Amino acid sequence: MAKILTLTLNPALDITISLDRLRPGAVNRSQAQHSHAAGKGLNVAQVLADLGHSVTVGGFLGLDNLAPFEALIAWRGFVDCFVRVPGETRSNIKLVEADGQVTDINGPGPQVDEAARDALLQRLAEVAPGHDAVVVAGSLPRGISPEWLRELLLMLKSQGLKVALDSSGEALRAGLEAAPWLVKPNTEELGEVLGQPVLDAAGQRVATQRLLASGVEHVVVSQGEQGVTWFAAGLALHAQPSKVRIASTVGAGDSLVAGMVHGLLQAEAPAATLRRATAIAAQAVTQVGFGIQDREQLARLEAAVHLAEQQEEGC
Fold first, then answer.
1. End-to-end CA distance of the chain
2. Is the pLDDT at 250 greater than 90, yes or no?
3. With CB atoms 3.0 to 4.6 Å apart as the test, which of 137, 206, 214, 243 could cross-link to 41 if both were Cys?
């Protein structure tokens, strides 16, 4: 298996509250509540660990609420490359309704100063070499600019790592300038960063061809219940998962990224890679929490994924 680094620059303590239906402006009574040390890179790391990889985790953590994050790192056996900064790691509240709809209330996170930025760069210069790939995922905390992210990705590439990026908005736009190995936008994020609507399969193809021409090797476009389409040189493959009962959509995209990185690093056939990654993402929405929790269920979901080559317009 591979040695993989994941970076979560803006991690979060996810507080997931389940309720029948959200009634704005009224008293709502929850049915269940769960707290998880999370953040997109940490979520990816948990799935990669379940797939058998050796994982190093890094980014920035607030000193005032370290316990749940350090407990997760110790439990999972991750190599800890996080830089501690003053303040609290943010809390994100996820209000999950019975029909699967999720309302997010995301906190701002701590302020990251120049000393902390330099400390992470120094730590990565020492630790990153020797890893096979790095997954940089999530939003940017206060004090981290999109331009700094772009330079971080270029540095990691210069160290010989395959760089996978999963972000949005200005962070994704700046990150694309570093031509990552893999990116995973959804259709809305793809249209936003390219300045053109992505409304159908033809629009996806046009948009992703721009990214492939810029040096990105793999573009994985997630579309929720409508499935996933993977574009690479000579490849446009769509995967449609079976319908599942939704417990929470939190972590589905992170699970997809982990599955894709796993299959690509194992040099598996494209169909096998996308089928498993799609199944892992489908399983993620059936549970609260992160990681592969039921291998038998995953096998059933994998067998039910439908694959089809996306054809050129008019073919």
1. 40
2. no
3. 137
The residues, ordered by sequence, that sit 6+ positions from 287 with a Cβ below 8 Å of its Cβ are 247, 248, 293
50 included as an active-site residue: no
Catalytic residue among 104, 118, 254, 294: 254
pLDDT digits (tens, 9 = 90+) for 142-198: 999 999 999 999 999 999 999 999 999 999 999 999 999 999 999 899 889 888 888
Task: Record the tokens describing residue 283, joined without a space.
Answer: 């399983």
For the segment 111-122, what is each residue's pLDDT rounded down to a tens digit? 999 999 999 999
- Domains of the chain: which residue ranges? 3-309
- The domain made up of 3-309 has a fold known as UDP-N-acetylmuramoyl-L-alanine:D-glutamate ligase (3.40.1190)
Q: The whole model's pTM is what?
A: 0.93
Q: Residue 183: which residues within 8 A CB-CB, separation 6 or more? A: 164, 165, 166, 172, 175, 176, 211, 216, 218, 219, 220
